[in-house]
Amino acid sequence: MSVTPDLTLWGVGTSRTIRPHWAMHELGLSYKIKPIGPRTGETKTAEYTRLNPRQKIPLLQDRDFCIGESAAIVAYLSRMYSTPERSLIPETTRDYAAWLEWCFFIVAELDSTSLYVMRRHRADALGHIYGVAPEVVAQAGEYFRQQLRHVEVALTDGRTFLMGDQFTSADILLTTCLDWAIAYGVGICDNAQPYLERIQSREAYQRAVAANVPAAPITPAAAKV
After folding, report:
1. In this structure, what DSSP letter does residue 110 have?
2. pTM of the entire structure?
3. Were 70 and a residue from 16, 104, 124, 207 both cysteine, which residue would form a disulfide, CB within 3.0 to 4.6 Å?
4. Ramachandran region of residue 177, left (φ > 0), alpha (ψ -120 to 50) or beta?
5. Across-strand partners of 207?
6. Three-state secondary-structure class, residue 33
């Protein structure tokens, strides 16, 4: 017997929090949003720490089950709630393995090793915490461009998505990294641009962008209105 989802997503405002928002819109799932942000103190409350001792966002609650890490959340949603009409994972064993390879590559090489290193050491990002390091930022950007060649090769055969004709959660992970890279002025390969435009035209992507916007802080003037 199928279980009715009871989903709550904690976290908005980053390239990582948008991923589970997007996956749930692709899957047609209803969910509640707790619009907390990173480094605001909201992840350090007693309530949130009980749910996620790592004190990071995003975090997904599915009834009595909690899972963090954006790629893991997306993979869980893809496995748990994909249907024949709305699926974010391939069916065959080898296609599933290829999907895993793309997901791990994107998270390890494009996100953590490249873009997040830039975020940690940019003056306009987290440099005040981890130290401003322009040379490190430049090298991380160059590494991103080198690794993106694998995406460039994959897209040269005319495929619509990373897995061919099927949109999967690997495309969610890749698109958020491409968006992030453009925001940081890294630049992306030529054939990734039409790919990105196709993905960004998806209704679920646009809904996720809207859902991922942090709530505006209430100023004293606004509070009087």
Report:
1. I
2. 0.92
3. 16
4. alpha
5. none
6. strand
Maximum Cα–Cα distance across the chain: 60
> Starting from the edge strand earliest in sequence, which strands make up the sheet with 32-34, in order?
32-34, 7-10, 59-62, 65-68
Q: Which amino acid is at 109?
A: E
Q: Which two tokens stand for residue 203?
A: 């209704």
Question: Residue 146: is its pLDDT beyond 50?
Answer: yes
**Any idea what DSSP says for residue 112?**
I
Is residue 218 very low, low, confident or very high in pLDDT (cuts 50, 70, 90)?
very low
Domains with residue ranges and CATH for the chain: 7-86 (3.40.30.10), 93-202 (1.20.1050.10)
End-to-end CA distance of the chain: 50
Residue 101 burial (10 A CB sphere; 0-12, 13-18, 19+): exposed
Pair 68, 56: CB distance under 8 Å = yes
Label residue 225 by pLDDT band (50, 70, 90).
Answer: very low
How much is the mean pLDDT over the chain?
92
Average pLDDT (106-132) is 96
CB contact at 8 A, 43 and 57 = yes
Q: What is the CA radius of gyration of the chain?
A: 18
